[in-house]
Amino acid sequence: MSKIKEPKLVKEQVKAAAVDLFFMLAACCVGAFSTVGVMIPNGLTSGGLTGIVRIVQNYVPLDFSLLYYGGSILILIIAVIFLGLREFRKILLLTIVYPAVMFLFEKLDLQLLEDKDVLLAAVFCGVFSGICVGLVFWRGYSFSGTEAIAKILKKKLFPYYSLSKILLAIDGVIIVVSAFIFGRNIALYALITQVIISRMVDIVMYGFETKIVRLEIITSQDQAVSRYIIEDIQRGVSSVKITGEYTKNQYTQLSVMCSPRESILVKRKVAELDKKALVTVLPVETVWGTGEGFNDLEKDQ
Which residues form the DUF2179 domain (predicted)? Predict the structure, then answer.
């Protein structure tokens, strides 16, 4: 019986890997075109590793893709040192593939706009970059960028701050520094791009309507997952005891309301702690309450 199932399992794993590779290549192409074909020709910048490389490129006369490659590999090495091999496996693929695709697009010299237009460029850069990041998050992968830096800072220096706040602070610092180098207007356009990226990520992953989702998590690591949701995501979480009718085993089911982006962070953490966990994501039309991101119960009447 096991001999029959094993080739089938291998075939399914190969198929899943091929699907992941297809979407990652698609994401890399869209993201590379956003940077090389839209952002750079119009003199714009953004947050994250892209913004850091744009600053470095202002002083080092090298192609953007080469500098990005160097930055990605450096962050990958630092992540392995401080975060371990688990983080290495999550970001290795895009560390290699994304800068290579970007290098190819630089050689093709493709541009979206016929004439320089910073406002249009900021908007479309946000749209394409958001599609890229959304596809990457949707398939459960990560970039070798400021997210890894934020995780290191949280682990070593700021354990009581949420990962999202540390990441927001890093991107803010990058954009502020860009204002001194490229001018205040360029930094403000970068803010527009960041807002659009955030919205596009949510649209790619959850469609146009969903602003809040409900996660139902069945895991043996319920205490660790609860602490992560409360301390890092800073959302409330409830729990109930449930019984699996087939095995009659007792489990704890966690329930949390959060944004689509926060749900991805929770999903990653659950995957790290318990590979056998069951996570259900349910779209929510609206939530009344006093929590962050919810509609005010008294005003929405």
Answer: 235-289
Rounded Cα distance between 23 and 155, Å, is 31
Residue type, 254: L
0.85 cut: is pTM over it? no
CB 277 within 8 A of CB 271: yes
Tell me the three state secondary structure of residue 20.
Answer: helix
- Every domain of the chain with CATH number 3.30.70.120 lies at 212-284
12: exposed, middle or buried (Cβ count in 10 Å: 0-12, 13-18, 19+): exposed
The kind and range of the H/E element at 158 are none
Q: Which neighbouring-strand residues pair with 250?
A: 243
- What CATH code would you report for 212-284? 3.30.70.120
DSSP assignments along 215-234, one per residue: EEEE-TTHHHHHHHIIIII-
- pLDDT for the residue numbered 120: 94
Give every CB contact of residue 216 below 8 A, 6+ residues apart in sequence. 253, 254, 255, 279, 280, 282
Distance, CA of 125 to CA of 44 (rounded, Å): 9
Q: What does the angle CA 178 – CA 183 – CA 184 come to, to the nearest 5 degrees?
A: 90
Classify residue 215 as left (phi > 0), alpha (psi -120 to 50) or beta.
Answer: beta
Rg (C-alpha) for the chain, rounded Å, is: 21
Structural contact between residues 181 and 55, judged by C-beta atoms closer than 8 angstroms: yes
* Residue 147 to residues 166, 256, 295, Cα–Cα distance (Å): 9, 23, 29
Per-residue burial over 253-287, b = 16 or more CB atoms within 10 Å of its CB, e = otherwise? bbebbbbbbbbbbbbebbeebbeebebebeeeeee
Strand, helix or coil at 28? helix
7 pLDDT above the threshold of 80 = no
Tell me the two tokens of residue 196.
């659009």
pLDDT tens by residue, 111-167 = 998 888 999 999 999 999 999 988 888 877 878 788 888 888 888 888 877 777 888
